[in-house]
Amino acid sequence: MKIQFKKTFNKNFEKLGRKLQMKTHEKIGLFQKDPFEETLSNHALIWEYKWFRSIDITGDYRAIFREYPNGTYEFVDFIFVWTHSQLYG
User: Fold this and answer.
1) Percent of the chain with pLDDT over 70
2) What's the rounded Cα separation, in Å, for the pair 6 and 4?
3) Contact between residue 87 and residue 50 where contact means Cβ atoms under 8 Å apart
4) 72 — phi, psi (to 5°)?
5) Rounded Cα–Cα distance for residues 70 and 7 (Å)
6) Euclidean distance between CA atoms 64 and 77, whole angstroms
7) Per-residue confidence at 48, pLDDT binned at 50, 70, 90?
8) ∠3-22-54 over CA atoms, to 5°?
């Protein structure tokens, strides 16, 4: 799996506190080993984000990504790191 972080993800990430940044690194590390590890809650999004998927960073924070080719997880672009309310609010 090749992972790329988009500028938008990096901007969001820089605004997080140190603890959330460390947790984000931890969860992305788990994701690299097994994208469907249970604690990540990897799932498809809906509405205007229907082309993306999400993993849980904390109870409120999500990492939003897109995988290519669809369903293979060969290449993954992380797009945003947002709270649940930023995503659906």
Assistant:
1) 99
2) 6
3) no
4) -100, -25
5) 22
6) 9
7) confident
8) 50
Yes or no: say if 14 and 88 are a contact pair by the CB < 8 Å rule: no
CB of 20 within 8 A of CB of 57? yes
For residue 61, give the amino acid letter. Answer: Y
23 membership: H or E segment, kind and range: helix 18-33
Average pLDDT over residues 70-76: 88
Give CA–CA dist 4/59, Å, rounded: 24
- As beta bridge partners, residue 83 has 61
Question: Which two tokens mark 26?
Answer: 């931890």
2-88 maps to CATH 3.40.50.300: no
Cα Rg, the chain, nearest whole Å: 12
Question: What is the spatial distance between Cα 80 and Cα 38, in angstroms, rounded to a whole number?
Answer: 21
Q: Rounded to whole angstroms, how far apart are CA atoms 46 and 60?
A: 17
Q: Cα(84)–Cα(89) distance, rounded to whole angstroms?
A: 8
